[in-house]
Write a structure and sequence with these properties.
Four copies of one chain form a homotetramer. By secondary structure, chain A is an alpha+beta fold. Chain A contains eight helices and seven strands, in the order αββββαβααααββαα. Chain A has a single domain, classed as L-fuculose-1-phosphate Aldolase, CATH 3.40.225. In chain A, helix 2 packs parallel to helix 6 (142-153) and helix 3 crosses helix 7. The longest helix of chain A has 24 residues, at 179-202. The two termini of chain A are 32 Å apart. The mean pLDDT of chain A is 97. Chain A binds chain B through residues 115-118, 184, 187-188, 191, 194-196, 198-199, 201-203, 206, 209-210, 212-213, 216, 220, 227-230, and chain B through 25-26, 28, 45-48, 72-73, 76, 98, 100-101, 103-110, 132-133, 135, 138-139, 142, 169-171, 197, 201.
Chain lengths: 230, 230, 230, 230
Amino acid sequence: MGRYTEIRREAFEANIQIPALGLAIYTFGNVSAYDPDLGVFAIKPSGVPYADLKPEHMVVVDLDNAVVDGDLRPSSDTNTHSVLYRAFAGIRGITHTHSTYATAWAQACMPIPVFGTTHADHLAREVPCTEVMSDAMIRGDYETETGNQILAAFKGLSPAEVEMVLVACHGPFTWGVSAEKALYNSAVLEEIARMALLTRQVNPDAGPLKPSLIDKHYQRKHGKNAYYGQ
Amino acid sequence: MGRYTEIRREAFEANIQIPALGLAIYTFGNVSAYDPDLGVFAIKPSGVPYADLKPEHMVVVDLDNAVVDGDLRPSSDTNTHSVLYRAFAGIRGITHTHSTYATAWAQACMPIPVFGTTHADHLAREVPCTEVMSDAMIRGDYETETGNQILAAFKGLSPAEVEMVLVACHGPFTWGVSAEKALYNSAVLEEIARMALLTRQVNPDAGPLKPSLIDKHYQRKHGKNAYYGQ
Amino acid sequence: MGRYTEIRREAFEANIQIPALGLAIYTFGNVSAYDPDLGVFAIKPSGVPYADLKPEHMVVVDLDNAVVDGDLRPSSDTNTHSVLYRAFAGIRGITHTHSTYATAWAQACMPIPVFGTTHADHLAREVPCTEVMSDAMIRGDYETETGNQILAAFKGLSPAEVEMVLVACHGPFTWGVSAEKALYNSAVLEEIARMALLTRQVNPDAGPLKPSLIDKHYQRKHGKNAYYGQ
Amino acid sequence: MGRYTEIRREAFEANIQIPALGLAIYTFGNVSAYDPDLGVFAIKPSGVPYADLKPEHMVVVDLDNAVVDGDLRPSSDTNTHSVLYRAFAGIRGITHTHSTYATAWAQACMPIPVFGTTHADHLAREVPCTEVMSDAMIRGDYETETGNQILAAFKGLSPAEVEMVLVACHGPFTWGVSAEKALYNSAVLEEIARMALLTRQVNPDAGPLKPSLIDKHYQRKHGKNAYYGQ
């Protein structure tokens, strides 16, 4: 078994789940899996439909965006992934999609408020939204700057506690301790985004969850005395 | 056949229907089945995906929340279930989900008005919504207090006539004479919640159903001269 | 082959399409098929889930609502069907559902305006909505009065040209030259209802289609010089 | 293999994808495939359900709308297709659907603003919407005039750069270098239309994407230095 077999398998399995979970049509999303020991990640090849993907198609790239193994061109979003792997210690998977409701909030350039416990079960604050990029950044190394915009939005935030972000005008990125967890976070974000819009439609004056309830739900799943799960 | 085989089977079969009915993704919901003779209920284990569940995984718990049989940790919502089984005579199944539209009304902290006969076929008044919990309750035995909030919302209401509730900021709980009926009520509630939001979007001035029509539809299915069904 | 075999088969095949087309959950809808020579119709039995239905379960009823063949109790909406078969010459099938968007318009007590050609391809005017029933009618022979309310809404309208109606506070009824066509009309109505709400959400000032365009689309499918289809 | 076998196969395969992609129910959509060397296109027969279609059913028509091969009547929208094939050099496939969200924008008679990069990945300006047709045009050769309205909306626009349009009060037409690409554009348009409505619901003041970002996303997929795909 080659040294990249495992991250290729992880990235492949998460990528093919994107359409199954309804998170993107055609090729509008990608997942990568990172091996911190080797300092490389496996990522979806650019523009290849999910139905045609095989594990060996996953392109292995280092943190300077150089292809170290694979015959195909990596996702056009590769440089955004590498920025996050360099900056966010401990993450081992990243997912980017254009899922419908999360993208609507991103296009509206608005963070998603904590309206309920479904949200607080996963993160204890609003889903952040980046600033809109400057023209200079857009005309520069665009995908790297997309990563930099995410880092700027995470000043003062912990990427281990908030594993998702909306890139303004574009769509969501999520991450986690594995490619599978990053993908899970994309599905959760889509559901949170949908519930949040519907909540405001039911009651335009709906306010955010009270801090004690946010804390309770986040801690029962993620705190040191967590009692959710096995 | 063991004494818990039947309630485990009932709970198992209802739990695996949650994703099939579109009522929750991942592990965001649970069903329990109660045996009043034994004074115990079987409930989904915490954090286990529906696709991995087997009947023997269901955890058997008594009304003081003590595990009496099973190798796994029961749902983190177990204490809420036991409060309801203790207080609501005659119910034998409880379902909790984070279904999208019912959760949106819960997050909006609003009861669902009776806008049509689909609603009145199942209950003759609005779907109640609990008060938001106090910080003291949240920091106490949270899941037991969730049950207590439901009881407070049912002052003057019959749990045999109203088999569903919205827990403010959180999501729906439903119950019934069996686990299967509790699950049915969760699916019906989701559809009622969706229709109610759409009704107000079609006509923001839509008013509630007139009392005679509520009564007619409720009685034809549930009254002593009911003529719906076989 | 018995004299009722054909209408039972037609009613059965249309009824089991209700959940496949997403027009109702559980038992929230029914189709009947009418034989004008025999003066009877076959209708879904009350409260039986679609998955359990067999052709022989269909109950054969005459136009006075007397069961002439079958072991089960007919749909609780049977009397509404018989009113329509008596009054609307030429129809041979009726469908009633609680499909989500059509029901939202019914609960809003509003007719559906002709916003586009999808609507005009099927009927040349708004989908009518009945008046809300009086208390006396509700407390009388309710299901027969539901049919009477539909007849009242059709004063001046041709049931051959307008094959659908919204019963205020309740939901849609549709009909046609066969059970299959009645079912088709229910699916079309649901799509028209959904498009109409979305159209107003895109543009609250959206007006109805101009008369010449309504006429063009209706006539090219239904006029004497129709050129749609084979 | 006959001279029309290939365009019949292309048209057939794209047509049967319409319901699979959720772009239309029943017969509410059609795709054609054009052979510029032969000057003919193969198009869906009128009113035939997708499930009943076979490749040999596709009707071969020339640019004057004369049937040159096939036993069935071609789509009632045939004349609109021929107008576009005559005027838009280089296109080889056209799709027309009544997909729900795109039709809602068409019924609202509004172009779809560029709210995000999903849109800009496919076209660098809003999705145009035609003018409402005059009564004289409607009463004339209606389907040809529908094509003429599209041409009028494309004054100053390149059909190679903008491969989609909304026909006011009616629904979308899309095209491309193949029938498959035309169908792809219909699915993309439906998703763009849905995201655009949701974006405005999240934030009624959402503005269009800045020009530099539109340009960046369009060029990275379609410009001379495009780096998306293999």
